[in-house]
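Sample pair:
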Amino acid sequence: MKIQVPEAARRIIEQLNTSGFEAYVVGGCVRDSLLGRQPEDWDITTSAKPEQVKEIFNRTVDTGIQHGTVTVLIDHEGYEVTTYRIDGEYEDGRHPKSVEFTGNLLEDLRRRDFTINAMAYSDREGLVDAFDGVKDLEGRVIRCVGNPLDRFTEDALRILRAIRFSAQLGFDMEAETRAAISVIAPNMAKVSKERIQVELTKLLLSDHPGRLKDVYENGIGPYISKHFEAAGRQPFKSERFTELPPVKHMRWSGFLRLEQPEDAVRILKELKLDNDTIYQTKTLVSLWKTEIPAHKPAIRQVMSTLSPELFKDLLWFQKVFCPPSYKNRLEKVEQYSEEILRAGDCIRLKDMAVTGRELIDAGMKPGPEMGTVLNRLFQLVLEKPECNNREYLMKSAEQFIKEQG
């Protein structure tokens, strides 16, 4: 069984071998290669200790040296090289209190989470698969290495990783592995919200985002947050998620669409999502149920409140989740919005033919009244794009000012 290892990673392995050490690519890159998927990272495991790795290679970074990891820089890319190790006790349910370096590859593979992630490969030795990872790949099964209760007790984040991998790969969970999840679920309270969020986001961005139900069905929700748990009680059709693009704010909005906007924001803030995703999700959750009239002034009004990208996301979102009675009108809305963009209609205040500076130069005092005038001019332009010329708008401004008297 041959795996195409990138040239730089192969050079690292060969250099370690030449120096008298074992070395293999390991974990996810082996799994993905066997599945015909493109690995994101190529991690290397070796019998060389960190200080020996640093002696062998000219350019290294101590990225996790206390756990045996040194990043080797080759051709401006970094490759994590980690010494074979045995983990000590996991006192906090997340991290080993200590690690012990070993010269035995199988001891290193034995500490890993799932059989499909516990394989190693080198061109010299071929595939090392001591825990039947290939069999589980062929059977499309997520199975813990050894006793699932032990693996999840060591690191509770593995619970979410099991569900996330099942979603990404479309695999089922082996019975004992699934049963252990419910038993160890309370340990999720020990895991940082940032790490939980990363796993949940990867799950939502997968080809099977509806597997998020497994988080609730296995009793994990309450240990993430009470608000996250409450969101899982809302009825949602999981199969519709795949009709949304695998974009973070779109998939989170799909999950949270039945929440009140402020509740959606609270959940995302608890999970430490970034501000852009929180804003975009809040906007979609707030607007997706609002049917847009198939009338260009009304469409321009909505477009004026959103970025072009978020407006397109809103229409896509509505196509997926809005009632059939709105579908025909929604097609018209999309058609008209494209015509609005092609025509170059003014849908941004900054694109209006008159600015606040010009009103000041014409003698108007800065302040709330000027803001009111600018807004009235903008509403006029949204209604009638042909009015967006300086002469017409300056005359209209003079009239508005007189009316304010």
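The longest helix spans residues 327-343.
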